[in-house]
């Protein structure tokens, strides 16, 4: 087992399921103490249970990424629980407002921007505030291959938000590398989560679709996704600053 993150404290938002949960598990397997955050207490508790069942250390903290005070409290609680904050993974995000952009509900569009963009910025704001005063750290934002890298009809609100996350990441990286904080992004394509399933589609149906739609002929695994996040957070990626690592099987190549 790798020990890249032994004695490190890692915060993962959106860690109650899917990719966020897998990332939290992967950090714990490599020695980190992990704080898992999100809006739902029960899914977070399950993530903690899974980590502890493997002998890892974790704690759950409910938080709302659209609420600055909630995020300030999250960072403070992380430090209180495990003594610091070395790595943050800003994974919380939603897809809303599907359909042609001219027909998207205004409330849905605003909610996508509030959670995906402003939520990422607010998360970084409070993470950076601690890291800058305590020797630096690493932040990995989760963007998407949709946005800065490619577009897809009928998900324009999501595409717009993720293009903004990619730009936000790069600018933050420039602003804060002098503070000893490395900021990068992972931009995944379709992963093995419910988010990549179309309405009424089965996993078998998705696999058949990927054989045609994706150059690699398959869906991305959560293990591959977590490995990319951990790489950018690790000392091995010490010269990676403002990187937007696309992980989509060639879909946007």
What does this protein structure show overall?
The protein is α/β, with parallel strands linked by helices and 253 residues long. It has a single domain, classed as NAD(P)-binding Rossmann-like Domain (Rossmann fold), CATH 3.40.50. It is built from 7 helices and 7 strands, in the order βαβαβαβαβαβααβ. Strands 3-2-1-4-5-6-7 form a 7-stranded parallel sheet, sandwiched between helices. α1 (18-29) runs parallel beside α2 (41-53) and α1 (18-29) packs across α7 (222-233). The chain is globular, with a radius of gyration of 17 Å. The two termini are 33 Å apart. The relative contact order is 0.14.
Descriptors:
about 250 residues; alpha/beta; Rossmann fold; seven-stranded parallel β-sheet; about 45% helix; globular
- Give me the CATH architecture, please: 3-Layer(aba) Sandwich
CATH topology term: Rossmann fold
Profile the largest sheet.
Answer: 7 strands, parallel
Strand content: 15-25%
Instruction: Determine the structural class based on helices, strands and strand pairing.
Output: alpha/beta
Q: Mean of residue pLDDT? A: 97
For the CA atoms, what is the radius of gyration? 17 Å
Strand order, largest beta sheet: 3-2-1-4-5-6-7
């Amino acid at each position: 087992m790798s020990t890249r993150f032994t004695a490190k404290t890692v915060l993962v938002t959106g860690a109650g399921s899917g990719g966020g949960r897998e990332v939290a598990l992967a950090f714990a397997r490599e020695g980190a103490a992990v704080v898992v955050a999100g809006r739902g207490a029960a899914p977070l508790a399950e993530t903690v249970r899974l980590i502890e069942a493997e002998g890892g250390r974790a704690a759950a903290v409910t938080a709302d990424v659209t609420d600055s005070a909630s995020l300030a409290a999250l960072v403070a609680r992380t430090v209180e629980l495990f003594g610091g904050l070395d790595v943050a993974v800003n994974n919380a995000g939603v897809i809303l407002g599907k359909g042609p952009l001219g027909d998207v509900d205004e409330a849905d569009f605003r909610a996508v921007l509030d959670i995906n963009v402003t939520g990422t910025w607010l998360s970084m704001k409070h993470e950076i505030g601690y890291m800058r005063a305590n020797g630096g750290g690493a932040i990995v934002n989760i963007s998407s291959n949709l946005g800065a890298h490619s577009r897809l009809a009928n998900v324009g609100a999501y595409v717009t938000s993720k293009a903004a996350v990619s730009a936000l990441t790069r600018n933050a990286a420039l602003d804060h590398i002098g503070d000893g904080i490395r900021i990068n992004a992972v931009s995944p394509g379709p992963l093995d989560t419910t988010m990549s399933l179309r309405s009424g589609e089965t996993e078998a149906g998705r696999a058949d679709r990927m054989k045609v739609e994706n150059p690699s002929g398959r869906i991305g695994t959560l293990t591959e996704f977590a490995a990319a996040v951990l790489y950018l957070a690790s000392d091995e990626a010490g010269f990676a600053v403002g990187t937007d690592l696309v992980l989509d099987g060639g879909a946007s190549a």
